[in-house]
Amino acid sequence: MGFWHEVRRDFKTVFEMDPAAKSGLEVFFAYPGFHAILLHRIDHFLWKIPLPLLPRLLSHIGRFLTGIEIHPAAKIGAGLFIDHGMGVVIGETAEIGENVTLYQGVTLGGTGKETGKRHPTLGDNVVVGAGTKILGAITVGNNVKIGANSVVLKSIPDNSIVVGVPGRVTKKKIIRMTTEEGLIEVMDNFPDPVSEKLEDFESRLNELSKKIDAAEKQKDSGSNGKTMKIYNTLTRKKEEFVPLVPGKVSMYVCGITAYDISHLGHARSAIVFDVIKRYMRYKGFQVNHVRNITDIDDKIIVRAKDENTSIVKIAEKYTEEYYRDMDMLGVSRADIEPKATEHVNEIIDIVKGLVDKNYAYDVNGSVYFDISRFSDYGKLSNRNLDEMIAGARVDVDEKKKNPLDFALWKASREGEPSWESPWGPGRPGWHIECSAMSMKYLGKSFDIHGGGADLIFPHHENEIAQSEAFTGKPFVRYWLHNGFITVDKEKMSKSLGNFFTVKEILGKYEPEVVRCFLLSTHYRSPIEFSDVQLNESEISIDRYYSTIIRIRDFADSKETAEGDSDAEVLEEFENTLSSVKSRFEDAMDDDFNTALAMGHIFELIREVNKLLDTGQSGGKIRKIVLKVKDFLSETGGIFNIFHKTPEEWYESLMKVKNVGLTAQDINDKIIERQTARLEKDWGLADGIRKELEGKGIILEDKQSGTSWKIKVG
Q1: Residue-wise pLDDT tens digits, 105-160
Q2: What distance in Å separates the CA atoms of residue 576 and residue 580, rounded to the nearest whole number?
Q3: Residue 656 belongs to what H/E stretch?
Q4: Phi-psi category of residue 92: left, alpha or beta, with phi > 0 → left and psi -120 to 50 → alpha
Q5: Are strands 229-232 and 406-411 parallel, antiparallel or unpaired?
Q6: What is the DSSP string of 129-157?
Q7: What count of Cα atoms within 13 Å lies in the side-chain half-sphere of residue 191?
């Protein structure tokens, strides 16, 4: 960084940080903080030449004029802002990163009299409160906030909030988000008790209002008389679900950007909202499900260049790949699956409306949403606008009024696809497409908007801003977000290179196993990717199919029809079945708790196996056992598992486990073994069994004959 670059950045920072700064002349002549930094830039330049005496003399003059003492040797990055800076002291070996803010009375001091490094090092985007002392050769990480009058004696990790004497870390949180400009990192804000109480009060009023609505509409809601609660990201509470139109649910879920093969994180989101839709329909609601495909985006353009093909072909290729993967996983298609390029006219109409209402501005053919004009910006992610702006790390873009303003329309570049618009040829920004398509198919306000937790900010936050600014109405009633899949505690993502594609996973595990694995954790909780847990899910699914074989054999047995059953045992099991049915729905009605609901299903599987172990028989027990089979099939339909015959299940397992035999090969071996046994050639019969066991095939001898299974887990 050159001298003049740093001075220009320091000068611009004053306007970014102090809204009272009205003109360049005012800053140049009347801002002691800027004077102190400018004098230090000169001092430091002379110090490095080196010149004797003069740098120290200028440093003393600066302290006399501004009340701020900066040693000429201190290394300071561009964008330092000293606010009300009387009493600020920066020592000789201190180092300060870019975009740092210091308030009055801050000391970056040394400890001891030894030579060498003895003053602190501050990372980028650090904010240090008034009166704080940071002492010694310690390191304060990037994006750290230090509260007023703290005394910091130990190094502080990135993204921390520090308070007290001695300074202690009270919060460590960072939001990383992708915008049109690339990666932005945003610090969380200090807790504000007053603001939190007001938000809580507002949330309680909103909840009360919805309860009143629910009481009025319960009769016609289509939910079979039971209350359903959903966790709403917007209010950060579980709320009673009351659709805008009784008995009908409008749901929009963000789909993929079609530029690459889908990974397990995409699969989780698709499966979560597939199950939510299926359960809503099970409860009697008419669900209109919309899921978009982004087929124009920077990533698609880059991939097309890399593969030397057209953007259309890239989007088509990876959309087909996505559908193929989702079909394999049993994810049903949405009722409407719109593409961004098919809705450019609707997008232009919204952008034009936002410009007309002064919520957006045109710069050289690109149109940006002005977040300062939307007072509720940050309400979904619970972020304070001033803190987001102060913490944002993004290259300075002279075109934008604010670093967090986002593109609604992008001016065309050479070689990129474009559409004519009132602002010249261009293409839609990422966020606007979802507003346009959701409102076209579901209306200006609708019930549920879903997606991964990584979309809360900025994508869904921006959707709210542009949609509500355009219509003047609440955009969505309930915001639902699924948690991440993690690998070694880090989010699975393409940017980190730690992802597993759906195709890779399905090469090792049967699709029902993957669904069971993803649904065995509550949708809002993170899942740690683990072969151990996938193997456990495989065992669980196999337990179901093994139970179905037992039920089928039991129901078909002549002994079952002729026998009799214990009335007390029968009544107890009837109660168990009734209880499981009720608890299954209670779990799903409580924010779609699939993990608990599946636990109830496998509890019933255990209980029916215990019942079969008792040796009870007769028509009545046969009837109740078949009821269990029907219930498992019905609930399995909600999760889209348990939909095969046992034979189909084992044949499917053969493929993923690379057994190397067909079902016919195994049956031929069974016939060969039976012949050997009839001829009392026990050695050959035992050898065939062991040969098949070596390939993961288990034989089971029954009265009705020999059957086979695939070893699981």
Answers
A1: 889 988 766 678 888 999 998 999 888 889 888 999 998 989 888 888 888 888 88
A2: 6
A3: helix 646-656
A4: alpha
A5: unpaired
A6: -TT-EEESS-EE-TT-EE-TT-EE-S-B-
A7: 9
pLDDT of residue 213: 59
CA 630 to the chain's CA centroid:
35
Cβ distance 127 to 147 under 8 Å? no
CATH architecture of 519-645: Up-down Bundle (1.20)
Separation CA 351–CA 359 (nearest Å): 9
Return d(Cα 514, Cα 503) in angstroms, integer: 12
204-496 placed in CATH 3.40.50.1820? no
Q: So what's the pLDDT on residue 253?
A: 98
User: 482: which residues sit within 8 A by CB, 6+ positions away?
Assistant: 268, 269, 272, 273, 450, 451, 452, 453, 523, 524
Is the pTM higher than 0.85? The answer reads no
Tell me the CB-side half-sphere exposure of residue 359, using CA atoms within 13 A: 23
CATH 2.160.10.10 domain range(s) in the chain: 3-174
Please state, in angstroms and rounded to a whole number, the distance separating the CA atoms of residues 507 and 693: 22
CA dist 326 and 322 (Å) reads: 6
Prior bond to 403 cis, omega within 30? Answer: no
- The conformation of residue 409, written as its DSSP 8-state character, comes to E
Model confidence at 166, in pLDDT bands (50, 70, 90)? confident
- According to CATH, the topology of domain 3-174 is UDP N-Acetylglucosamine Acyltransferase; domain 1 (2.160.10)
Q: Please provide the average confidence, as pLDDT, over all residues in the chain.
A: 87
Length of the chain as a residue count: 713
Which of the pair, 706 or 629, is modelled with greater confidence? 629
Exposure string of 619-631, with b = 16+ CB inside 10 Å and e = fewer, is: eebbebbeebbeb
385: left (phi over 0), alpha (psi -120 to 50) or beta: alpha
User: Residues 125, 98: contact at Cβ < 8 Å?
Assistant: yes
Look-up of token digits 């050695």: 683
Environment class of residue 533 by beta-carbon count within 10 Å: exposed (0-12), middle (13-18) or buried (19+)? middle
Question: What contacts 156, CB < 8 A, 6 or more positions away?
Answer: 138, 139, 140, 141, 144, 146, 162, 167, 169
The answer to whether residues 104 and 128 touch, using CB atoms and an 8 Å cutoff, is no
> Boundaries of CATH 3.40.50.620 in the chain?
204-496
Q: How far apart are CA 674 and CA 287, in angstroms?
A: 54
For every residue of 190-258, which 3-state class applies, written as one string?
CCCHHHHHHHHHHHHHHHHHHHHHHHHHHHHCCCCCCCCEEEECCCCEEEECCCCECCEEEEEECCCEC
Whether the bond into 50 is cis, omega within 30 of 0? yes
How many C-beta atoms surround the C-beta of residue 575 within 10 A? 10
- What b/e string do you get for 479-516 counting C-beta neighbours within 10 Å, with b at 16 or more? bbbbbbbbbeeebbbeeeebbbbbeebbeebbbbbbbb
Domain with CATH 1.20.120.640 in the chain: 519-645
- Sequence-ordered list of residues with C-beta below 8 angstroms from that of 168, at least 6 positions apart, any chain: 162
What residues are paired with 178 via a beta bridge?
183
User: What are the Cα distances from residue 221, in Å, to 205, 209, 245, 275, 591?
Assistant: 22, 16, 8, 20, 17
CB 384 within 8 A of CB 199: no
